[in-house]
Specification:
Layout (H helix, E strand, L loop, with lengths): L1 H6 L4 H12 L7 E6 L15 H22 L34 E6 L7 H6 E7 L2 E6 L3 H10 L14 H12 L5 E3 L33 E3 L5
Antiparallel strand pairs: 1-2, 3-4, 5-6
Helix pairs in contact: 2-5
């Protein structure tokens, strides 16, 4: 591989860097989806809200319409007040009103295409093509996953020949027993010893030796009894 890169005069490290830039590029440098307030979110009494420029145009159109109507009727110019609806000051980037009766707090979704003159090298590699449709420009992006997989293979992270080590059956069984714990109580079964005071006692009380007699160790026998519970 390095010999091919040498013949083609392409530095191998540079290829790896370009792949890594593409794998870690942020698609939001090209296109972004934003949710902002609808026209009724912050208008007066949740009415339709104009932008400042829209309000000015609507006001001038209202004045001209009233003047034309008065001239046609032969009356003195006395325009009616304009119906302002929700007023002016609409900002599409403002957060939606949680109690808006029009959008129920969901707002309006907008797709924003970014200026491509200041893209990073990785973002430029993500750009596949741009189409102009009747609904506006459409951007097609490349997937970042193939570049990430190639970098991982170069670093030896994906080994197809890897096989997990076999698990010893006895070791697995002992581990399971240790994890679950034992629920089998142990009780003594020695007729020479008195019964334990508690059914859960494991160590019985030793038998008392006769006065003056040499103490001899008492052989204790135990048996495992499975709990009926």
């Amino acid at each position: 591989m390095n010999e091919r890169a040498t013949v083609a005069a392409v530095p191998a490290n540079q290829v790896l860097v370009r792949l890594w830039e593409m794998a870690t590029a942020d698609p939001r440098e090209l296109v972004e989806i934003r949710v902002g307030a609808c026209r009724n979110c912050w208008g007066q009494y949740h009415g339709y809200q104009y932008t400042e420029a829209e309000f000015e145009r609507a006001f001038h159109e209202h004045v001209q319409s009233e003047a034309k109507r008065k001239r046609a009727e032969g009356e003195a110019y006395d325009p009616k007040p304009m119906r302002e609806k929700g007023g002016a000051g609409y900002d599409a980037g403002r957060k939606p009103h949680p109690e808006c009766p029009e959008c129920s707090g969901r707002g309006n979704t907008r797709v924003i295409l970014k200026d491509m003159r200041s893209l990073s090298p990785g973002a430029r590699m993500l750009l596949r093509s741009v189409k102009v449709t009747k609904h506006g420009p459409q951007i097609l992006l490349r997937s970042r996953l193939p570049a990430l997989v190639k970098v991982g293979k170069h670093l030896g992270m994906w080994n197809d020949k890897f096989k997990p080590a076999p698990v010893n059956a006895l070791t697995k069984l002992l581990d399971e027993i240790a994890d679950r714990g034992s629920t089998i109580p142990i009780v003594h079964d020695d007729p020479e010893l008195p019964p334990p005071r508690d059914a859960q006692d494991v160590e019985p009380e030793p038998a008392k030796a006769a006065p003056g007699a040499a103490s001899t160790p008492v052989k204790r026998r135990y048996r495992a009894v499975r709990s009926s519970a």
